[in-house]
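Researcher: Here's the sequence for the chain we discussed earlier.
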Amino acid sequence: MPRLIFPVLLPLHDSRLRVQLRTGAVLATALVSLLIGSVAAVAADDVVWPKVRAKGLLLVELGRQEVLLEANAGKRLAPASLTKVMTALIAIDEGDPDAAVTVSRHAARATGHRLRLRAGQQFRLGDLVDAMLVTSANDACRAVAEAIGGSETAFVARMNAYVAALHLPDTHFANACGFDAPGHYSTAQDLARLAAAALDRPAFAETVKLRNGVLRTLDGRRAYRFRTTNRLMMSNFDGAVGVKTGFTRGAGRCLIARVVREQGDLLLVMLNAPRRWWDAATLLSRAFDTLADRTPPETAPAWIPVEPPADVTGSESAPSAGPIPL
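Model: Thanks. This is the structure I predict for it:
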């Protein structure tokens, strides 16, 4: 995994937050300086970018640690099902993929994009995570959150503990799956950091590459087939390897896309982008055209890992159901 402009993420040997991060003040200063320098460099190179429609956007080349393009990257917006990146990251860090998970009534009643799982059915935790990431199943997402946290409310508190540990200053979650709700927001910049953290976990990186899958009950009586919601991958866009789609009425159409080619490793975050597939393909193609002639930065920020914060106790208010996330 190439060095990132985001926090260094390393596994720990306990069940707490498996992250080692730089202190918030130093990290914020370094990242802001990097963003300003990168955007100025793009302007100096006279790169002509296609016009796109998005309320928040960030395009990053991970290997060179460059921000290639940004627009309102720090604006707080509803993230829809991009929220599930955090839910999956926690499940991978803290859960046993082979653990048996029983679907609750609350999970089975999830609305929006779902597999129509039934209360009482049992599945492998790892398989539920796959369904949550690949096809954005809300019932699988709730089942995962309850399995890890004991309740969705407790799990949301865990999510916001990770928010603090990953130094995502403009992110706060109110539910595990991305329903629009007061106090549920993020930014393109924070979501890029979060995606980089998740992609550092091999289990996450491999899952988001999947184009389809099958979720089977432990007793073998029922199987749910699903496919990716990522049209870049379904259309065989060269190098597309994830990451997550999202949609609600409040959030609009959202996307985190990763595309890896010989020229570079691109991560694109788009929030409230009405033409996300067309605009994403256009932006990514233009970026790869420019990378061959771009000189990598001479120096990269040195991230200083520190001990993670203590485990979080207590809980937040119960998650509220809003417009349906996809």
